[in-house]
Each structure stands twice: as C-alpha cells, then as structure tokens.
Amino acid sequence: MLSGKEVAQHDSKESCWIIVHGHVYDVTEFLDEHPGGSKIILKYAGKDATAEYDPIHPPDAIKTNLPKEKHLGPVQPDTVEKVEVETTDEEKARLERVENKPALAEILNLHDFEYVARQIMPEKAWAYFSSAAEDEITMRENHAAFHRIWFRPRILRDVTNVDYSTKILGHNSSMPIYISAAALGKLGHPDGELNLTRAAAKHGIIQMIPTLASFSFDEIVDNAQPGQVQFFQLYVNKNREVARRLVEQAEARGIKALFITVDSAQLGRREKALQLIQDMNQEHTSDPSKVTKAQLGTSNVTQEASKPMPAPSTVLDPGLCWKDIFWFKSITKMPIILKGVQCWEDALEAYDQGLAGCVLSNHGGRQLDFSRSGIEVLAECVKHLIDKRDLTFPNEKFQLFVDGGVRRATDVLKAVALGATAVGIGRPFLYAFSTYGVDGVNHALDILKAELEMNLRLVGAPTLKDVVPEMVDASNLSSHIVAVPKDSLFEKNCE
Ligand SMILES: Cc1cc2nc3c(=O)[nH]c(=O)nc-3n(C[C@H](O)[C@H](O)[C@H](O)COP(=O)(O)O)c2cc1C
C-alpha cells in the first residue's frame, strides 16, 4: 500500500499522481487529454483530488479512462494530508445568497429558476450550464423565435376539461415535454441527473439520459421506478466498439429509444466557460504589471483560452456519417432518432433511411452560433415532408421534436401546432435542481402543467389534437432580427 508521503512526491507535470476515493492514479500522460485542461489536475498533483473530482465525473470515469498500469493501488488513509480549500469572500457571499434564496412557492415561471441560479450557483457550474457558443446569438434566438409566433385562438368551444397528455414514440407522457440530455449534472447538485429521474417518474414524463452524465448509466436506470420510460442520448465514440457497448447496454437495460447526437463534430467554443478558466489562471499567476482582460475590457486571450474548447478526445467523432447510422440500425432494435438536425434536407434523408424521427435542435446554442432555432427548422421540415413525402403531422411513424429555448407552455403549444410530437427542455430543469434539488424540478413541472391547462383553454383546444397549424400565425418566423446581448464581448468592445 502506498503512503501519502510517497504520493506527494509526484506533484509536477513530469510525474503527476493523484488520489481519488483512496486510490492512487498516475495521470501524467493523461494531463493533455483531460477535457477540463491540465491545470486543474496539476492543482491536485500529489494530493487527494476526490472533492474536486466527485461533482464532475461518474465514479468509474478515472478507472475506465486510464490504462490499468496507471492504477497504482490504494493509499494508507491516515497518511494523506487533507487538502484545505480556502473559502474566499466571494464564496462566503454566495453561500449567504443561498441561505436567503426565495421560497420555492415564490418561483412563478421557468425564467425565475434561471434568475435564482445565476445568483446562487457556484461560478463554475453556472458558467458550464449557461454558456453557449461564441456570441451566444443562437442561444438567445432559440427563445426569441417563439416570440415571432402568435396565436389565432378559437372561441366558444367547451374547454371545461382539457387534456394535454400524449404519446412519445408510442410511450405515454403526461405532457408533450421530455427532459433533454445534459452532461455533468452533479456540477449543479450532488444528486445531479437523479433529480431528473425522480421528478420524471413523479410527473409521468420521459428523461433522456446523457452519455456524459455525472452518474453512471446504471445508477440512473437503477433509480428509475419499475416501468418508467427512459431514452438514451449517444455521443458516437471514435472507437465504434465503445459505441456498440453503450447501445447494447442501453437496450439490455430497457431503454426505449436511442437519440444520436449529430450536431457535435467538435465541441463548440463556449467562451463564458473559457473566460472563467482564464480568470482562474490569472488569479493563480497574479502579476500586478499585467493588463488583465477585465481592465482592458476586450479580448486579451491567453494561449490556453485561444485554443478550441478542450474536448474529450474520443467521445466526439468528426468522421461520423450516414453509413454509421445504417450500422446503428443493424445493431439495435431501439428506434433511432437524430438529435441536432438543422435543415429539411437532412430530415428528409432521415425519413428516407427509415429512422424514427429527428430532434430539430442546435444543442441549446452551444455548438454552431448562427444556426437557426429548432422551432424555425420545424416549420421548414414539416412543409417539405408534406410536399415531398406526403406525410401528415404530428406523425406516428416519423416523429419530429424540437428543443432549444422552450420556457413556457405557450412555446410548447406553438411547437405542437406546427407539427411537433413533443419538445425537449434542457437548462430550465438544470437550474431548477441546482437551486432547489428535486423539489425544484417537480415545481417546474407543476408550473408547466398549470400553464398548459390554462393556455389550452385560452386557445380553445380541449386536447392536443385540437392544437392545429391554423391556431398560430408563424408568417414572421424566419425573419431574423438579432438583438445584440449587452453582456457579449462584441458589445463590450463597441462601448
Ligand atoms: C449544460 C448542458 C449540457 C448539455 N449536454 C448535452 C449532451 O451531453 N448531449 C447532448 O446531446 N446535448 C446536450 N445538451 C443540449 C440539450 O440536450 C438540449 O439540446 C438543449 O439544452 C436545449 O436547449 P435549452 O437548454 O434552451 O432548453 C446540453 C445542454 C446544456 C445546457
């Protein structure tokens, strides 16, 4: 058994050992590959990194990513020095805000969760969840696009009872909403993705489990209720045997659909997150004679941050193409849906290849900035699938989903009117559990249900079948008016 003293000697980039859950790992050769960069590992070189590791990684990540010979074995617990984490004044202030956050009952809509999250989440977690690509234009456009669709309600219909339940890929869902996949849930709350599993069970909706969850896939499935329907989101690993194993594991555990992410040939450049890394680096190498970016008010990008966002080297494959999708069809009976389709030509191809559907999505604006909103792409896809393939929508055999910027039941109803089977929601649920745990997600779902009920009545639709294209005026949907956000680097430079 190794001693803490021995481990402490390997505290440099030439020889870097760390302790995680009482075991020692030699990560020297992994430093440059680490998706979060080498600096954060080096901070814990020769030390116990468990507290930093836990919120971000599934428990088995280090074991599965490092070759066996780099697992150096257990360490004598009483010989390991405790890593003191200093509580800064900023952190003290944040903890005070956590204490004083509004009662859950005061949260009136999904935007409120975001407001509270921004005030009380740890900076790193907020940066990861809220960031989007480059100038974040697409992220804002995702919600703004819903503002360009207006209702044409019907009157004098009996809406005493309204029913917003539906079927998604043949499975019951209490509303036309599912929880979209988002990585690293534990950054926001110790129970991370399990908050979503539990709330989904309570509310009868479906959770899409991400490949890069911070709990292991089995842990998330084990936390589901008997019969609870879950979907799986797949990042196709360069090593197709890894991809095959993930698909087979999902199918064996009863996952009902495979959503393959197709908008991520490379990770988008999320500058809010990069800026944070940069700021942290500046803190550690504080040199009073240096002009910092904050002082300059413009982009004085260090070498580290000017690199593309570090990405898991094998998790995303820029070589992924249609022939791989055919291969997936050959290895699974699960329905396959492409997540991240952004124009009608690709939706048509997916239909022609016999897939079960598409999610019209731009990854919450985190990938290609200036990609169009999912709701705009929906209208275009429906039109062409009707014109060219004689389909009707919503369609049972080929289902269209939308995600990105859905914050209100009115957004959901607009998507349904335009032909979507259901919509995916990402950030609002992350903010809900980051601020109030599972109660937050349950409250968010209660809000959505109340909004759905009210708005179905007000548009004069007793069921979702009555929410038809004629109920909306989407004639302005593809007019792109970009409001430049006040907090963007672009805007700061124009001041
Ligand atoms: C923090 C975060 C992590 C995400 N991680 C993934 C992921 O691992 N795989 C994936 O396909 N999509 C991922 N997404 C995209 C979501 O599945 C979804 O497309 C997006 O969040 C919808 O936009 P919204 O956040 O405005 O609702 C992530 C989104 C966020 C905000």
Task: Considering the chains and any ligands shown, give keywords for the structure.
495 residues; alpha/beta; Flavocytochrome B2, Chain A, domain 1; TIM Barrel; 3 domains; eight-stranded parallel barrel; three-stranded antiparallel β-sheet; 20 helices; 15 strands; 39% helix; globular; binds flavin mononucleotide
Characterize this entry briefly.
With 495 residues, this protein is α/β, with parallel strands linked by helices. The chain has 3 domains: 4-79, Flavocytochrome B2, Chain A, domain 1 (Roll), CATH 3.10.120; 132-268 and 312-473, TIM Barrel (Alpha-Beta Barrel); 271-308, no CATH class.
Describe this structure in words.
- The protein has 495 residues and is an alpha/beta fold.
- The chain has helices at 4-8, 38-43, 50-53, 61-65, 89-99, 110-120, 123-130, 137-144, 192-203, 217-222, 240-252, 271-284, 293-296, 303-306, 322-331, 344-352, 374-389, 409-417, 427-459, 489-494; strands at residues 17-20, 23-26, 71-74, 150-151, 166-168, 171-173, 177-179, 206-209, 230-234, 258-261, 336-341, 357-360, 399-403, 422-425, 472-473.
- It has three domains: 4-79, Flavocytochrome B2, Chain A, domain 1; 132-268 and 312-473, Aldolase class I (TIM Barrel, Alpha-Beta Barrel); 271-308, no CATH class.
- An eight-stranded parallel barrel has the order 7-8-9-10-11-12-13-14, surrounded by six helices. It has a three-stranded antiparallel beta sheet with strand order 1-2-3.
- Helix 6 runs antiparallel to helix 19 and helix 9 runs parallel beside helix 19.
- The longest helix is centred in the C-terminal third of the chain and has 33 residues, at 427-459.
- Flavin mononucleotide (FMN) binds next to helix 7, strand 14 and helix 19.
- Keywords: Flavoprotein, FMN, Heme, Iron, Metal-binding, Mitochondrion, Oxidoreductase.
- GO terms for molecular function: heme binding; L-lactate dehydrogenase (cytochrome) activity; metal ion binding.
